[in-house]
Amino acid sequence: MKNRVTSAQVAIKADVSQSAVSRTFTPGASVAPGTRKRVMDAARELGYRPNAIARSLISGQSKMIGLIAAYLDNQFYPIVLERLAKALQARGYHTLLFISEPGDQDHELEKLLAYQVDAVVMASATLSSALARECLDAAIPVVLFNRDVPNSPANSVTSDNFAGGRQVADYLIESGHKQLAYIAGAENSSTNRDREAGFLAGLEAAGVSLAHRAVGGYTHEGAAEATHAFMRSDNPPDAIFVANDHMAFAVLDTLRQGLGLRVPEDVSVIGFDDVPQAAWKAYGLTTVAQPTDAMIEATVSLLFDQLEVGHAETTRQCLPVSLVERDTARRPQG
């Protein structure tokens, strides 16, 4: 293998000091135009690339933000990760992505921190309060995206999942539904907990009991199995609220193709997230829209408040949601 070209070799080739080479490749550093040209010409001729790892050791900043995510089969998160990475790149930072299994986030975070990242965003993942405190003590900002851990020192950005669940309950009741079902995501996730709590609060306020409940685990297979079980029961539901769009697509496929039922004439279905596929004609899914761009903007703002300003106070931001009416739920009359 060819030996890596060093900055010292570039300095010799360009007939400048090694510090001049370093300044040339440091954004914002002052370098005379003539010197910059000689350095860049020499670097191109030799095939030199600056060593970002070595630079981070000198500056104390890696300019890397660690991202930990799970549930990437959920269409919501690939979109979030792409937009978040672009927003961070626009601020001069790059991302290092780790994929975790549900329930294994602390282990992945421990590995991620070994790469000397400047901050961490955990999307669709949570962490223990002990590890969050360890990051705080090490001055490594952590933001939970679309998750919240009560009493954790980590910052969090979520949508108003409780209000979204309440809106779904109100909508279905006003549409005349009597037998309502809920398909939960992961039992231990704050998104599922709050969406279900809002849904149940809406039912209770209307004097309606939940007819069916199952856990889909945020998986296509789990949601399909739950739908089959609901519809085989003695009192099948006339409406199903699903904890996210990914599972709602499985519910729709099962009802229409698997069971030959009509949506919404026989059963109404409402999801949560409003991923792009929800608007496709094949689905036309009525769903609760999360303010994705606003959540990303808030996450980036929290990170840089801590990285650049040194703001240390724990912040929890909860942004409003909206119900998007399409074709899978009967609409209120009048």
H/E element sequence:
HHHHEHEHEHEEHEHEHEHEEHEE
Number of helices: 12
What would you report as the Rg, rounded to the nearest angstrom?
Answer: 25 Å
The CA-CA distance between the termini, in Å, is 75 Å
Uncertain stretches of 5 or more adjacent residues: none
Short description:
The chain has 334 residues and is an alpha/beta fold. The chain has helices at residues 7-14, 18-24, 33-46, 52-59, 76-89, 105-113, 129-137, 161-174, 190-205, 220-232, 245-258, 292-309; strands at residues 64-69, 94-99, 119-123, 142-145, 155-159, 180-184, 212-215, 239-242, 268-273, 286-289, 316-319, 322-324.
Features:
434 Repressor (Amino-terminal Domain), 17% strand, alpha/beta, Rossmann fold, 334 residues, 6-stranded parallel β-sheet, 12 helices, elongated, 6-stranded mixed β-sheet
Description:
This protein has 3 domains: 7-50, lambda repressor-like DNA-binding domains (434 Repressor (Amino-terminal Domain), Orthogonal Bundle), CATH 1.10.260.40; 62-158 and 292-319, Rossmann fold (3-Layer(aba) Sandwich); 161-290, Rossmann fold (3-Layer(aba) Sandwich). The chain contains 12 helices and 12 strands. The strands form 2 sheets. Strands 2-1-3-4-5-11 form a 6-stranded parallel beta sheet, sandwiched between helices. A 6-stranded mixed beta sheet has the order 7-6-8-9-10-12, sandwiched between helices. The relative contact order is 0.11. With 334 residues, it is α/β, with parallel strands linked by helices. Strand 3 (119-123), helix 7 (129-137) and strand 4 form a beta-alpha-beta unit. Helix 1 (7-14) packs across helix 2 (18-24).
